[in-house]
Amino acid sequence: MENTILAIALSAVDFLNAFEKTLLLQELKALERGGANPLDFFKAASYDQIAELSKRDKERPLRVRRWNPQELVRLAKKSAMEAKVLGVNYVLLGCDLYPPLLKEIPDPPFALFYRGNIRALCSKTVSVVGTRRLSPEGRKAAKEFSYEAAAAGYCVVSGLALGADGCAHMGAVDAFFDGRAGTVNTAAVLACGVDNVFPPSHKKLAGQIIQNGGVVLSEWAPGVPGEKWRFVSRNRIIAGLSPATLVVQAPPGSGALLTADFALGYNREVCFHEACFCKNALVLSGLVHKNLEAQSGTAAARKIETRPEVYVADGARVVSSFEDFSRNF
After folding, report:
1. Is 188:181 a contact under the CB 8 Å cutoff?
2. Distance (Å, whole) CA 85 – CA 4
3. Cα(138)–Cα(245) distance, rounded to whole angstroms?
């Protein structure tokens, strides 16, 4: 239990990156070999001691110098108890079970907390994302693409949100129940602890994933609530888990396009489903564009410039199906 508490506490240290946390854990384990208790040392350590042991990059700006290890350990103990009750496991950066593609990105999570089968992410993967406001064509595209991907042995990665995410997971679940896949080949990445499925309407879907060979995971420990900025952080994991990301539908400024940007930043492939450019999708994009034009500020202007057509003009492929995707990737 102490190892779990320490791992959860370290995952919440906000001024260290994953590599520094990994080194810090190694140093704390070395103290244990010398007879010291790593958790007790961590709880009593000063900021300077932690920074020294972790070899924190002193050139990286420190925005807020907050350090309260006693509170971190208190919250970690609470999370560890919740994890034990719910059967939540975790894997740390550097461990064999850590998803191999996620290790390659420059900002990987230090820890992944999960329910289900983390080995699902050791097979071929494809990330499927899109707007919550899917058109009927978008719903069909997300489900059919993910169904065929799961049937072909791919693990479909998405975020369990309403719209494209939910349809992607449902497609993979349907492939399993139709006997086209041996397990539920899908991974749902949450922006909160895995004890709190969001949205609540997807609790049954999450249960089907967990119970039938898929995985629900998060970089946040049990008990951590979903906050807006955590969805952005979650998107980088979705992009990092796959060599390619498919955008089903995404109006200007959509969070799905942020996932696409992460994927491109990691030198991964990005493609768009032709449903992105169907009549209903273009109508929605036009409405969003008008709303953004009515706003002032650089944020609205940036969102107007972030639309699928720009990515396609820059070389992103447009695919019509999983079969079409598999020929190109």
Report:
1. no
2. 13
3. 16
